[in-house]
Design a protein that fits this description.
The protein has 314 residues and is mostly helical. It contains eleven helices and four strands. The mean pLDDT is 92.
């Protein structure tokens, strides 16, 4: 039998006490905003943006807070956990536990940038074109954080690079979980619930060895999505931004279409984390709307075409 890797990474970079510390998930957002700002300022200095480099920092800061964080969290509540949100609206504020929707973050950032463009009398399409170039940085880091958290894992597989995720226990039949917890408690009484088991994998070789015998080998879909939505998408948009003379709005439309297609491809490997919509996962279903939006942006970009400041760069 193959010895699959049992996921044992801690969600904390530094832990101060049980459940409190500096989480990789939060750091992913901080670094995404930092790198995104630096790259957007670089594009502004080269003349691709209607904003000055100094304006970029303010725009990204508020866009991150109001667009990405609020939009992403609200999108997750509405798209993936509506019942829990209606029962306890305060769940919205528990962002440290994870639970962000990339579709919600994209929509939130689009609405914020529309407000900003009208408020400051700049081209909304130009804002969008530069935002989408830096957005894959956040998507990449967010997916890496999902992997570190051991969440949003993939479908079952027997490939040699499959992994086993302890958080799978929360989704298994209750009877199986009860029997499993009896076994884990025999290893150490503190491993008497699912959360304790997940937290204890990194510190207990015996627990890790036991879980390797019962957990399902799965695709590390978080890393696959990080590659598709982060590296592949960024490469496409960066080449288009810096090598071709394109009207404002073309890149935004390309982002919506390319992200949707890459997300649909990633869903092939990802275990659905919400009930299906017909025959489609939630991620696939919402991606179809992004394709329609992308086509709309491309049509709008050509009526009539307007170009960023760096019109001489091809």
């Amino acid at each position: 039998m193959l010895a699959f890797y049992v996921h044992d990474l801690s969600p904390f970079l530094i832990s101060f006490s049980e459940g409190i510390g500096l989480r990789w998930y939060g750091l992913a957002y901080i670094f995404a905003f930092l790198f995104g700002t630096l790259l957007y300022r670089h594009l502004a200095r080269r003349g691709y943006s209607d904003l000055t480099p100094d304006q970029v920092t303010d725009f990204i800061t508020w866009g991150a807070l109001l667009g990405v964080v609020v939009g992403g969290r609200l999108g997750y509540m509405l798209f993936y956990d509506l019942d829990g949100f209606l029962q306890n609206p305060l769940l919205f504020f528990r962002v440290w536990e994870g639970g962000m929707s990339s579709h919600g973050g994209i929509i939130g950032l689009a609405l914020y940038s529309l407000w900003y463009a009208r408020r400051h009398h700049v081209s909304w399409l130009n804002l969008g074109d530069n935002l989408v170039v830096v957005a894959p940085i956040g998507l990449f880091l967010g997916r890496c954080a999902n992997f570190i958290n051991g969440e949003l894992f993939g479908r079952p597989t027997t490939v040699s690079w499959a992994m086993q995720f302890p958080k799978e226990l929360a989704f298994l039949p209750p009877g199986f979980v009860v029997a499993t917890l009896q076994d884990t408690a025999a290893i150490d009484p503190k491993f008497s619930n699912v959360d304790a088991v997940v937290a204890g994998v990194s510190s207990s070789p015996a627990l890790r060895a036991y879980l390797a015998t019962i957990l399902t080998p799965r695709y590390p879909s978080q890393l696959i999505e990080a590659f598709l939505e982060g590296i592949v998408l960024f490469t496409i948009l960066w080449i288009l931004r810096t090598r071709f003379r394109l009207p404002n709005g073309i890149l935004t439309g390309t982002f919506f279409i390319a992200y949707a297609l890459l997300r649909i491809a990633g869903e092939i490997f990802r275990e659905p984390d919400a009930p299906l919509v017909g025959m489609f996962t939630r991620g696939e279903f919402f991606s179809f709307f992004l394709i329609v939006m992308g086509i709309g942006f491309i049509i709008a970009a050509m009526m009539p075409p307007r170009y960023p400041k760096a019109t001489g760069k091809n």
